[in-house]
Design goal:
The protein is 66% helix and 0% strand. The chain has 15 helices and no strands.
Length: 304
């Protein structure tokens, strides 16, 4: 006959040992676990629907011309080749690499200007008190209701008077004052505790020093979000560069890819290679700044 071993008695004055807590999966009832797996399945299906075109685009860029036009379409190329990239990067009539550099320079400088103007305009609207602040902010928000296509002719006339036609300045400066950027940064600045500025004021810091050395470092998530959105908007802009850029050497990538498409209407391998080159920087930036984007968007909606 076996003898049951008694549980060890805790020493006098010591706290009893707590019983081990059940894991989260054991605490959930079967119906709840089934619902969780169903949600995961739906999310996976949605992700595949969004990712599959990008995967097909990437795979098609490595196909030969015959594989790219085969019916029915096939996912994997029978013969992997870099011929499409060599053709578009080496062609003199369609300088894709030059378009890529022009777009990178224009989008980066445009994003920097948007961040500078938006932060300088949003900080007084969020943290300072002055007469007419509500009217100014309402006027800024009202510009969001104006369709951008209405401003094409006025912006064209201004750019022409400044002598910026057929130069990258025409696609960098005109839309650098972003009403959405002002709204985004203002909402983020409102979420910061006012005690930070009060402490800086007691230490003798002026408003500019407080803004540069305290507020801006805390606003990195919102700044990263705004910079990425501004970069993406300028990078994907097609209509405005068509109106103001005429020389192929100063064209940006979206407008240049339209020329590539018209010159190679059935060369899907070339078109997909150009699309890969156009989408790669944006996807890379999003992967690198994803953490800041999520934090910036979430904190910008805390306080209205």
């Amino acid at each position: 006959m076996t003898t049951a071993t008694a549980a060890p008695t805790p020493a006098p004055g010591s706290a009893p040992t707590p019983a081990p807590k059940p894991t989260a999966s054991r605490r959930r009832p079967p119906r709840q676990r089934a619902g969780m797996w169903a949600r995961w399945l739906v999310l996976v299906v949605i992700a595949l629907l969004f990712i599959s075109p990008l995967v097909f685009m990437l795979l098609t860029s490595f196909k030969t011309r015959a594989d790219a036009t085969s019916l029915p379409p096939q996912w994997l190329p029978e013969e992997w080749t870099l011929q499409a990239y060599e053709s578009i990067l080496g062609a003199t009539a369609t300088p894709v690499f030059t378009w890529f550099l022009n777009s990178m320079l224009a989008a980066a400088l445009h994003a920097a200007l948007v961040v500078v103007t938006a932060t300088l305009a949003a900080y007084p609207l969020a943290r300072m008190q002055f007469r007419g602040k509500g009217i100014v902010f309402g006027a800024v928000i009202a510009t969001l209701l104006v369709p951008p296509v209405i401003l094409i002719i006025p912006n064209y006339l201004i750019v022409s008077e400044l002598g910026w036609l057929n130069s990258l300045m025409a696609v960098i400066v005109p839309t650098a004052a972003s009403a959405f950027g002002v709204f985004l940064m203002r909402q983020f600045f409102l979420s910061l505790p006012p005690e930070l500025e009060e402490a800086a004021r007691l230490d003798g810091a002026n408003p500019w020093s407080t803004f540069v050395h305290i507020i801006l470092p805390l606003a990195k998530p919102a700044i990263a979000t705004l910079a990425l959105l501004a970069f993406l908007g300028n990078w994907n802009d097609f209509l405005w560069p068509v109106y103001v850029l005429f020389n192929p050497d100063v064209q940006t990538l979206p407008a240049g890819l339209a020329t590539l498409q018209s010159a190679n209407a059935v060369r899907y391998d070339l078109l997909m290679a150009g699309a890969v080159i156009a989408s790669a920087p944006v996807l890379l930036l999003y992967v690198l700044l994803q953490r800041f984007i999520v934090e910036g968007v979430s904190r910008s909606g805390i306080k209205g």
